[in-house]
Amino acid sequence: MALPSPVRTTQHNISLADIDDDAYRVIRRLHQCGFEAFLVGGSVRDLLLGKRPKDFDIVTGARPNDVRRIFRNCRLIGRRFRLAHLLFANGKVLECATFRAEPFGGEDGEAVLITDDNEFGTPETDARRRDFTVNALFYDPQTAEVIDWVGGLKDLDARVLRTIGEPVTRFREDPVRMLRAVKFAARVGFHIDEPGRAAIRQERKQLKKAAIPRLYEEILRMLWGGAAARSFELMDELGLLEILLPEVSAWLSRGSRDPAETLRALLATVDAKFQGRQQIENGVLLSTLFWPIFQDLMHDRPRAVDSSGARKLAEELVGPAAIRLRMPRKDVGILIACLEQQLRIAQAGPKRTARIQVARHAAFPDALDLLALRTEAEGLDEDALAEWESLRDVPRHAEPDEESFTGGRGRGGGGRRRRR
Ligand code: ATP
Ligand code: MG
Question: What percent of the chain clears pLDDT 90, i.e. is strictly above it?
Fold first, then answer.
């Protein structure tokens, strides 16, 4: 249902002081050159929610070549859809995109995967091609107007995450939007509207058609974003986890202790501790998803509990997901080592020489990060953790990749490397 004109309002809480100075100057300069230009997407959403935006994306009527002519610090990127990046001294990059046209549906209104997005459009088409209403708001810092073509302000007030247009169609066009829905809903505490939830349940298998690196990226973003516990809970509830990480989802439904609670506690600790800021390896974050299962497996197979048995078990557990999601070799190496090292740490005994031996392993600092998360989530002994922490900087064996996962195909084989 097309609105005749957008809602324009200056009744909002965004103040100029919250806006990145460079983004403001870029928009002003584009205006001076006769082009429309707005802040858009996540930054407007987050500003309206009183949160500090991660980045300030700009959208404009200027074509990429115009942008390059106007700004000396401009670099054009992307082949299919040219996008301008504006580079600033402190390493900051502002993205400046040209209004795009609406993605085109297939015959008889059947949704198709978007293959060619390279059509310039108008502010309205650009707003409507976006994924969720709250992600499609424009803000003009010079007039202080929020411009809403899609009912995003109303949804923002009601804390509802709603697709622009029919959810089944939008999820078929780009199945990764289902994961984005979960990520945003979890992060800002919004409710995915009922048609959206039903569409996700119905279309979840479409995820198998999505580009694998994008799926992997979204998993990492959920772990990073400060709302991992809620994200994975919601993914489980909507059936997405079963498609993405069936081993985790199966375990949640039939683990021996209280699996959902174990995982939730660990992810809640990730959220509290890291909030997307502190440095931690992807492999460590991923290990929080597998640790509770690994712990269960170890209980069930006490005879496997020596170092090589533990490693084999970790490889068997993580291997299928690593191949399916084409996890980079480094991430898998750290993930497996983190799991296995928990056992070595537990079995090291009180002697300092034995402990130093464990601490010399290349992945020890990563294993220690997992141990710190576990200590909080599982209520383990904090003094014990402190003792291990004191060994964080002992000189260690080189080659973190030494024992990395080979997927049973020997070095360098297998499908776990990121493909272009
Ligand atoms: P974040 O705070 O995570 O950066 P964001 O809303 O800025 O959130 P981005 O992934 O940076 O999200 O994308 C920027 C904007 O581009 C989104 O707000 C949305 O309007 C649009 N967008 C991104 N991905 C899609 C997609 N798959 N389909 C439609 N629109 C999208
Ligand atoms: Mg963004």
Answer: 75
